[in-house]
């Protein structure tokens, strides 16, 4: 069955971006890992990344129409986008929120709120890219 792994702004630079916080795995490697983990679990995983908020909203609206499960790392939009809150509210299949770092433990106050969490069945943070594997396992377990 189909699962979308959706990634928000700046995650395309994974591996180059602040590796001391986000690790050295590149975005391309993460995307390939998610597809491999998914096939092991019997999931048809599609991985996307965008720096354009409206594009993420369009993907989420389609996931709502199709009742597709979503693994979402909305990056900085997580912390302040009410349009993202509203888009997540419309999902009917499971939504798992993932963060590579642990925003709730980072010094910037703005990272301590999430508009995604109220709609997520599970929040995974601070486990690096392995958090995506755990998210896919959770969805596969149904
Ligand atoms: C992030 C955490 C966010 O606070 C940050 O804005 C990101 C990445 C993470 O995966 O750790 O861009 O979502």
UniProtKB/TrEMBL annotation:
Keyword annotations of the record: Amino-acid biosynthesis, Aromatic amino acid biosynthesis, Lyase
PROSITE patterns associated with the record: DEHYDROQUINASE_II (PS01029)
Gene Ontology molecular function: 3-dehydroquinate dehydratase activity
Catalytic residues of the enzyme: 22, 99
Pfam families in the cross-refs: DHquinase_II (PF01220)
Annotated site location: Transition state stabilizer: 17
Biological pathway: Metabolic intermediate biosynthesis; chorismate biosynthesis; chorismate from D-erythrose 4-phosphate and phosphoenolpyruvate: step 3/7
GO biological process assignments: amino acid biosynthetic process; aromatic amino acid family biosynthetic process; chorismate biosynthetic process; quinate catabolic process
InterPro entries linked to this entry: DHquinase_II (IPR001874), DHquinase_II_CS (IPR018509), DHquinase_II_sf (IPR036441)
Domain of life assignment: Bacteria
Subunit annotation: Homododecamer.
Function: Catalyzes a trans-dehydration via an enolate intermediate.
Protein name: 3-dehydroquinate dehydratase
UniProt gene name: aroQ
């Amino acid at each position: 069955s189909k699962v979308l792994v959706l990634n928000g702004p700046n995650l395309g630079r994974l591996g180059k971006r602040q590796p001391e916080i986000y690790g050295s795995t590149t975005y391309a490697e993460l995307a390939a890992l998610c597809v491999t983990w998914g096939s092991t679990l019997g999931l048809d995983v599609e991985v996307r990344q965008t720096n354009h908020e409206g594009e993420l909203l369009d993907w989420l609206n389609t996931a709502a129409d199709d009742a597709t499960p979503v693994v979402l790392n909305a990056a900085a939009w997580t912390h302040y986008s009410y349009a993202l809150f509203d888009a997540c509210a419309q999902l009917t299949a499971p939504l798992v929120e993932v963060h590579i770092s642990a925003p709730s433990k980072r010094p910037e106050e703005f990272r301590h709120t999430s508009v995604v969490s109220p709609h997520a069945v599970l929040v995974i943070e601070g486990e690096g890219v392995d958090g995506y594997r755990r998210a896919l396992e959770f969805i596969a377990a149904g």
